[in-house]
Input
Amino acid sequence: MTLTGHSASHPGKSRIANSMGKARILMEALPYIRAFRGATIVIKYGGAAMEDSAFAEEVAGDVTLLTMVGLRPVIVHGGGARISEAMRRQGVEPQWRDGLRVTDQPTMRIVQQVLVGEVNPELVRLLSRRGSTAIGMTGLDGAMFAARPISPDLGLVGEVTSVRTDLIASMLEDGVVPVVAPLGLGEDGRAYNLNADTAAGALAVALGAQKLVYLTDVEGVRRDQHRPETLISRMQLSELRQLLTGNGIGGGMRPKLASCVTALEGGVAQAHILDGRVQHALLLEIFTPEGVGTMVVP
Output
């Protein structure tokens, strides 16, 4: 028998090596788990990442894992595609101004039906299936989001004027994952349709969140939207402000980035733009040094 210094291959060895790799990943995540234990993370969830059932199941599992290792996630969800679909089914054509949905009273009824009757309970169900204790709510509950109308041309579209956090704070203390639909209460007693991106940013500031995370259907922020190689992995707030002064950022990305600016100026430590279609994007961004999207820091 020729001695080579290597033992014969064994099927058990590849299994052990694979297990060791998983253990190494857990150990690499340990410093981040320790650093963020007890931290509040506001997650804005929307886009194609929310509409695909497989991605939605995975995000629910990731959020559950965050709670299991001691983080305190809060979800603010959108529902724009479903609202537009529901409007068309009822013979109402969606109208937009400056990226905001024109919301008259009939449209507002549809918005509430979709957000409160469909999207919110669906997310609560997914989280509960994965082991989270989740409770659905809207910005109307406990007068969480106070709002005022932005413009008469937009109808019942509001901007957040103040945030009450007592209800959500008590839920977080009890280990509950709040799932929030972006509706606000006006001084006139009417419900207002809020942009979910800006609502998430305002809530992150009010809660003193460590992180504001946007799970969307783009890979992150690019210097040039048409060139994937210009993806920015990490940027400072000053750089983001400069980026927003140009014309390269448009569509749904602009309100997200404007909300990042507001959040960081309000004391949130980090903001993230992630592609929710990437497997376990949330965990990779929080618990690995490389991350998978764009992180903005003060």
Observations:
- The longest helix spans residues 11-36.
- The radius of gyration is 21 Å.
- The chain has ten helices and 16 strands.
